[in-house]
Automatic annotation (TrEMBL):
Domain of life: Bacteria
Catalysed conversion reaction: (6S)-5-formyl-5,6,7,8-tetrahydrofolate + ATP = (6R)-5,10-methenyltetrahydrofolate + ADP + phosphate
Protein name: 5-formyltetrahydrofolate cyclo-ligase
NCBIfam families: MTHFS_bact
GO MF terms, alphabetically ordered: 5-formyltetrahydrofolate cyclo-ligase activity; ATP binding; metal ion binding
InterPro entries to which the protein is assigned, alphabetical: FTHF_cligase, FTHF_cligase-like_sf, NagB/RpiA_transferase-like
Keyword annotations from UniProtKB, A to Z: ATP-binding, Ligase, Magnesium, Metal-binding, Nucleotide-binding
Pfam families: 5-FTHF_cyc-lig
Keyword Transmembrane helix: no
Source organism (scientific name): Flavobacterium noncentrifugens
Residues the record lists as binding ATP: K3, K4, E5, L6, R7, R132, V133, G134, Y135, G136, K137, G138, F139, Y140
Residues noted as binding substrate in the record, renumbered to the chain: I50, E55
Length: 187
């Protein structure tokens, strides 16, 4: 399937999930993350979910990272430039929800992309080769291209992999892992 076809199909699948489904699947994903070989890393980038799009609730992951004394980084997006700024999450971080329904930090200590060790990547679908399909705005491909080559990229999905995304571009950045409620895919 093409990215456009996958976006349409997986947005529909997500809309069929109940709030209870989202919570249960999000918790299962967080539990699967515990098995990944990432815990010696320090700086972890976590996306905050767009609830209207029924994205994975990353609160469980935030609790895991906090419990392991990891440095948590969250982003603010500029929709004109397609750039993301990254900030250290602290007790003093203030959030506002932007026009797209994304909770964003309004203040804090900025963290350069080059310092981030692990990125949890939002997506709609992914394939067995580690190609991801997002919303098509290019924010994460741009951000991931700014990270160090060794940065670990972990997709999070409610659904299993598809066989192939047919219209992958050279600029698309592959995942290292993708975690679903039932499986951890390593690429």
């Amino acid at each position: 399937m093409t990215k456009k076809e996958l976006r349409t199909a997986y947005k529909k699948l997500r809309q069929q999930l109940s709030q209870n489904d989202i919570e249960e699947k999000s918790l299962a994903i967080a539990n699967k993350i515990l098995s990944l070989p990432i815990w010696e890393q320090t700086y972890f980038h976590v996306f905050l979910p767009i609830e209207a799009h029924k994205e994975i609730n990353t609160e469980f992951i935030l609790h895991l990272l906090s419990g392991k004394d990891k440095e948590i980084v969250v982003s603010k997006s500029d929709f004109e430039t397609r750039n993301m700024e990254h900030f250290l999450l602290t007790d003093n971080t203030k959030f506002e929800t932007n026009d797209y329904g994304i909770p964003e930090p309004q203040n804090g200590l900025e963290v350069p992309s080059s310092k981030i060790d692990v990125v949890f990547v939002p997506l709609l679908a992914f394939d067995i080769s580690g190609n991801r399909v997002g919303y098509g705005k290019g924010f994460y491909d741009k951000f991931l291209s700014e990270c160090r080559p060794g940065t670990i990229k972990i997709g999070l999905s409610f659904f299993p992999a598809v066989d192939a995304v047919h219209d992958v571009f050279e600029s698309d950045i592959k995942l290292d892992y993708c975690v679903t409620p039932d499986e951890v895919y390593a690429f």
